[in-house]
Write a structure and sequence with these properties.
It is built from seven helices and nine strands. It is α/β, with parallel strands linked by helices and about 180 residues long. The strands form two sheets. The protein has a five-stranded parallel sheet with strand order 2-7-1-8-9. It is globular.
């Protein structure tokens, strides 16, 4: 199943702390790119803005939108729901833009299983030790949450065959350049 229109879809995912959001933010600077703003039920972190960083929804609102078919994909990650709004993708594709979707591996799996066409890029850390260091340095999660994210990351790294390209983020500027080249920016 391919989106209709003149643009294209790029799916970017990777373990929490791998650098996928940093890569996506850099790609977003291109006027040819529209960045998907995911909906989520997780708590809003300090400095995040509703509608800019995420669409922060209650569980009830998320489930209502899901039942109406408003999500391209959705998944539960670490106890919270995340989803990509179909309406944002449709508008970007019709405008001839590159629509970048930053999702979890579970979301990628559901898109692949549905036969959804796009360019799939997996951003990975150079090592699990570096991933732990990044998560700790972020300062946004408790030690228990970090351990849970690392366990999830180990399982996610086994899913690299879902992707067309794997970008190892040992150096952020190189990872950004590689991802940009892969999608033709």
């Amino acid at each position: 199943m391919a989106p209709k229109g003149k643009g294209k879809v790029v799916v970017i995912s990777g373990p929490s702390g791998a650098g996928k959001t940093s890569v996506c933010r850099a790609l977003k600077r291109s006027p040819e790119v529209v960045f998907s703003v995911s909906a989520t039920t997780r708590r809003q972190r300090e400095g995040e803005r509703d509608g800019v960083d995420y669409h922060f929804l209650s569980d009830e609102e998320f489930l209502a939108r899901e039942s109406r078919g408003e999500f391209l994909e959705w998944a539960v990650y670490n106890g919270n729901r995340y989803g990509t709004l179909r309406s944002e993708m449709d508008a970007a594709i019709e405008d001839g833009k590159t629509f970048i979707v930053e999702i979890e591996v579970q979301g990628t799996r559901s898109l692949r299983e549905a036969g959804f066409e796009g360019d799939y890029i997996f951003v990975v850390p150079p090592s699990m030790a570096e991933l732990r260091r990044r998560l700790v340095a972020r300062g946004a999660n408790s030690p228990e949450e970090i351990d849970a994210r690392l366990a999830i990351a180990e399982a996610e790294l086994k899913a690299k065959d879902l992707y067309d390209h794997v970008v190892v983020n040992a150096d952020l500027s190189q990872a950004i350049d590689e991802a940009s080249s892969l999608i033709g920016l």
